[in-house]
Amino acid sequence: TKHVIKNIQWVTANNFTVERGRQQIEELISTWDIHESWLHHSEFLEEEELKDSKRYHYRACWGIPTRRKPIPRATASVYFVIVISKFKPDTSPVEVFYRLESSRLIRRPEQCQFREKWLKDIIENKIACIERL
Fold it and tell me: How far apart are CA 22 and CA 44, in angstroms?
């Protein structure tokens, strides 16, 4: 059986704002199959001007707070980039990429379904590292 990759309808370049970008990242995250115990917050980091595009950088920081540990021992970040091409028409949708904090692999939401296991792996590795120190 073929797994359906969930994506959203991305805003066009002429309708893009920094806040709209953050809202759309939240909309994308809402399509991910992640247990409700995970909490996150997203934030805009910076705007980057390149020769061929403008890039808007965001971060979503994830953790699993509990009653006994309301501040998680470790968190996992997912970094997003929204790209507005200077060569494509203003009416074309923005391009979106993301990567995990522990990885250099860049993913596109329409090509790869997000996996909760990636967040778990980052946090488990951080906790193991903390315990070794």
Answer: 7
Distance between CA atoms of residues 14 and 125, nearest Å = 41
> What are the backbone dihedrals phi and psi of residue 127, each rounded to the nearest 5 degrees, phi first?
-65, -40
∠ CA 88-86-23, nearest 5°, is 85
Residue 92 in tokens: 């074309």
Structural tokens at position 110: 């329409």
- As given in the structure block, the two tokens for residue 99 are 């990567």
Phi then psi dihedrals of residue 100, to 5 deg: -85, 150
pLDDT tens per residue across span 36-94: 999 999 999 999 999 999 999 999 999 999 889 888 889 999 999 999 999 999 999 99
Count Cβ atoms within 10 A of the Cβ of residue 86 and give its class: 0-12 exposed, 13-18 middle, 19 or more buried: exposed
Measured CA to CA, the distance from residue 82 to residue 25 in angstroms comes to 9
CA–CA separation, 126 and 128 (whole Å) = 5
The pTM is what?
0.92
